[in-house]
Amino acid sequence: MAQPHYDVLVVGAGLSGIGVSRYIRKACPQKSLAILETKPRIGGTWDLFRYPGIRSDSDMHTMGYAFKPWTNAKAIADGGSILNYVRETAQENGLVEHIQFERKVISADYDSRSQRWTLQVDHNGQREVMTCGFLFSCAGYYRHDKGYLPEWDGYDDYKGTLVHPQFWPEDLDYAGKTVAIIGSGATAVTLTPAMAETAAHVYQVQRSPTYVMSRPAEDKFANTARKFLPERVAYAATRWRTILGGRKRRKAMAANLEGTRKLLIGGVAQGVGDGVDWKTHFVPRYMPGQQRICAVPDGDLFRVLRDKRATMVTGTINRFTETGIEMTDGTTIDADIIVTATGLVMQFLGGISVSVDGQDVDPAKLLIYKGFMYSNLPNLVYFTGYTNASSTLKVDLVAEFACRLLRFMDSKGHTQVVPVATDNDFSKISSALKFISGYVVRTAHLLPKHGASFPWVHEQDYMWDRKTLKRGRFDDGTLQFSNGQPVTFPPLQRKTSDDVEIAAE
Prior knowledge:
Strand 19 (368-369) and strand 20 (373-374) form a beta hairpin. Strands 1, 2, 3, 4, 5, 6, 17, 18 and 21 form a nine-stranded mixed β-sheet that branches. The chain has helices at 15-27, 45-48, 60-63, 79-92, 186-196, 220-228, 231-255, 257-272, 278-281, 300-306, 391-412, 438-441, 462-470, and strands at residues 5-11, 33-37, 99-101, 104-111, 116-123, 126-137, 161-163, 178-182, 201-206, 212-215, 294-297, 310-314, 317-320, 324-327, 332-334, 337-340, 353-356, 359-360, 368-369, 373-374, 380-382, 416-419, 430-431, 449-450, 479-482. It has 505 residues and is α/β, with parallel strands linked by helices. The longest helix has 25 residues, at 231-255. The protein has 13 helices and 25 strands. The radius of gyration is 24 Å and the shape is globular. 28% of the residues lie in helices and 22% in strands.
């Protein structure tokens, strides 16, 4: 049986994959397209996570697509609304017919003689093989089949119900029960107020504090603008207002970190009131910008703490007991349910094993080209977002660039493009993510790096990317094009620093 071949294969049918596929169908309608999705449904992250209160952690007027207005009244939206938005986009743009569900890409091998990727795909235990000219990875940056779980003494001794937010049981009944949530990030601060609505009591157990900021769930400007302006005009105005406002705030924060620190902590102190020990539970040991700030819509977390429906516990877990958790200071927390909101497991290209001309690729020995390609990997574009803004902002820009790149190559008769890194580019290696969050620190040594200078260093800056991607040249001296002749690639696994240190407290 002949192997199916596509001009472009998109891996992932989540928010990014559906958006990218729409750009391809719109800008390159002559290209044959298939979308490979591991799960039996559209949605990606927004289909996977189903825990109580699941919502966006950034404004939907920038997390939404540039081409499709977000019209929901809430800018910090619930997961169900976001999932409907993604599915609606797929339906409106005729993308559902291009999705092949329950297809997990196991490996991808590129052949420089034929300028094709060959993919080994698992479909319900059966192996399928397909080829493509271009591979677009929208598989995200973390494992969907596994969440991070620390090793705790006595973990197996606990007799209650253990839950990881990534695998939330649909039938979990926590009404009237005591719940302990372990974690301090976005998932934990979302779960605590949501579960506190019906639980007997919720304890949020954190090793150390995180910066938390209250913000309105609804954007008054957006909701007012929709009343008086055409839908697309109102959306564009709101989107740019949010982009420019966020950029201004980030610059102000970077210029005065100590002032920002005091402002954030002061906001929490005001939000929780005198009845909560905010100095213990909401004064982080790191400076703003080193981890993502957790947004709580309309101060919902602060409200349940004030009302004594939830309690913060800050310290180190000594062990699990049959009835709950024992802290190193001797404090015990008995709970009917323990939720381990302990983080994600990052991975490269959705866990796909990659090779070029039979040579296995070590992701840790690759450099990142402008935030969307990798050194010496041909005909491959990946799509991930920002750490300090909505991910879709970056995805939109890269999708537009990728479509222009495809049209450029067609006009020149090229069939292959590869960003070529030199020895000098590898002379200075550093982590591409400057965060000290646990999920970054745990896996940074396994992932691609920043090089010595541009284009092997990219900024977490939307306006910089607009200039670089919207007006940047394709023939920039780094991208190497060919029109059918095999290319001799520089060694994929350059000698780099064996240990890339990331400062973390």
